């Protein structure tokens, strides 16, 4: 189990609630039980991503919670058609709700 010693020194004897986020470039460092409650700013190659360590994360690596690639979406004509249909149904629902609201105002 590889835990970076400098990270452990940075959190040693500190209160997790009062400590600001700790910047690190050590993505390969595993999360140990002493790190629970601390917030780490893990570098993803471009920026630092805030990672709040919980009990479930113990044994995992810091880099697992700081993605290095940004997923846009799968596209194409079929995807655009699905999005257009979804927008049309949302617009139709909004117009129907608006019509119901105006009818209830007129009846009063």
Fourth-tier CATH superfamily name of the largest domain:
Ribosomal protein S19/S15
Task: Tell me the overall shape.
Answer: elongated
Strand order, largest beta sheet: 1-2-3
Q: Briefly, what CATH class of the largest domain?
A: Alpha Beta
**Number of helical runs?**
2
State the CATH architecture of the largest domain: 2-Layer Sandwich
Largest sheet report: 3 strands, mixed
The share of residues in helices is 25-40%
Distance between the termini: 72 Å
Which segments are poorly predicted (pLDDT under 50) over 5 or more consecutive residues? none
User: Radius of gyration, Cα only, in angstroms?
Assistant: 24 Å
- β-strand percent reads 5-15%
How many E strands? 3
Mean pLDDT: 88
Order of helices and strands: HEEEH
Domain count: the total is 2
Stated plainly, the CATH topology of the largest domain is called: 30s Ribosomal Protein S19, Chain A
Overview of the structural elements:
It is a single chain. This protein has a three-stranded mixed β-sheet with strand order 1-2-3, with no helix packed on it. It is elongated. By secondary structure, it is an alpha+beta fold. The protein is built from two helices and three strands, in the order H-E-E-E-H. It is 35% helix and 12% strand.
Labels describing this entry:
108 residues; alpha+beta; 30s Ribosomal Protein S19, Chain A; 2 domains; elongated
């Amino acid at each position: 189990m590889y835990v970076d010693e400098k990270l452990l020194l940075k959190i040693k004897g500190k209160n997790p609630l009062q400590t600001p986020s700790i910047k690190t470039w050590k993505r390969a460092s595993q999360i140990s039980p002493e790190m629970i409650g601390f917030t780490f700013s893990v570098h993803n190659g471009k920026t630092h991503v805030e990672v709040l360590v919980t009990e479930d994360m113990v044994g995992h690596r810091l880099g697992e919670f700081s993605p290095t690639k940004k997923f846009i979406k799968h596209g194409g004509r079929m995807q655009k058609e699905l999005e257009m249909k979804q927008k049309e149904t949302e617009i139709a629902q909004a117009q129907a709700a608006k019509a119901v609201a105006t009818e209830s105002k007129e009846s009063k």
